[in-house]
Fold:
Amino acid sequence: MTVLEGPAVPARHRGPRRALPPGLVMAAGTVVSRATGFVRSALLVAVLGSGPLADGYNVANTVPNLLFVLLIGGALNTALVPHLVRTARESADGGAAHVDRLVTVLVAALLVLTAVVVPGAPYVVRAYTSYGGGQLDRTVLLAYLCLPQVFFYGLFTVLGQLLNARRRFAPMAWAPVLNNLVVIGVFARYLGRRSFDDGDLLVLGAGTTAGVVAQALVLLPCLRAAGVRLRPRWDWRRAGLGEPLRAAGWTLLLVLTDQAGYWVVTRLSTSVGERAAAAGLPGVGYTAYSSAYLLWIVPHGVVTVSLVTAAVPALSAAADAPRAVRALLARTLRTVAVVTVPAACGFAVLAPQLCALAFGHGSTGSADVRAIAGMLTAFAPGLVLYSAGYALTRVFYALGDSRTPFLLNLLPVAATALGALLCHRLLPLRWAVTGMAGCYGGSFLLTVLAAAVLLRRRLGPLRVLGDHVVLLFAALPAAGAAWWTARYGLLPAAAVLAAGYLLLARLLRIEELSVLTARLGRR
Structure:
């Protein structure tokens, strides 16, 4: 895998050289985290079932997880690293005093937020449910235990971004594994239990929060190993905190607009699901949409996020050298496309087999699997656009511009919402939500086009379209052969897809794939 490098970070922030490329370390952590997360989810269902108790637990755990997504995807994740890299480069003390002030104000804000949210647990539960009686009481109890996760998810984000700014990517990628293992251990003791009293709920709720606490606190010794000694500093005036806080505000608005688009799709797809069930059409509503999305997003989460996160410090350090930024971005886009282009083709032609393997168990029938597979096929082409748009918008953050990504994000949100409304009104019940999936993926074409135009003005021409076309010439014939082979099973089809793509890519001399396979072979 290509290691993206840029101007050096000051020596005090530079850790020892690692044997593994940062993107590979993060991708490995993401894979293990997702694997243990699947075990955790399966165990939760095995212990609590899928009835009212499980619903109450998931409602109680929804709000802190939602805030975690807001923090990771918005206010802190994208704004902190570029700012910290620039501060380290420009400050005489390597940015140590500035980091102390920034962490102090962020931790104080998280404490205030948590202090407001936790006492409001009953109102939070009522806002999300129509529960009453004992079900309401149990859910509120669990919410009181789970809502403190807000602080520890935020702390995890702040500490993790400090490490990422110093190019220590492994801790933040692997810490969620510890969280999953703690929760797995808590739930494992209740296997076979048929009833639960308040004491059991205390253990389950507190154990879930304990996993998040462990995920955050395990980063503290990693920071010390990286040479970071945090001290609270309260001299915030004239401390230069306005820039990162303004950036955090723009990115928070970005994620909130994302949630607005997501809300439209959720409301409309659940409406379709209710009407479809009444008409005898199973599995064509929101559950099928979200299940297909979970499969579709895996290559992006494992590859794109890992590579782009590893590239952001180098892009930030090279912000004053447009040619260097352009070269780093082009290399990142090509390396991401090496994986996302064949993955999109694979989803398109092997969706029925993949969905049967992942979801064709228990009460899920063949009609449900077909519905999920149709939505995965509709999502598939958008994977390349979604990942490319993600990489392009992160360059603006590296350049210290958080306003432009917010404005760019309005395009796919508006297109997704409008497309969902049209699909809801115009398409038959069987295909309405499938159309919404296609609109969501396709909407990111607007992001890619607009971001490319704006970056061209700042950095000069980006010649990456030709690379994507070449990758399609390698992936499409392999996908066609895989589709024909799928009658013999998923494994032979996947093998044909991989072998055919690798062979054609080698014949077409795709450099990034050669580097990737060579490095993986050595590792």
Q: What stands out?
A: Residues 78 and 397 are 6 Å apart (CA to CA). Residues 1-18, 519-523 have pLDDT under 50 and may be disordered. The first helix runs from residue 22 to 48.
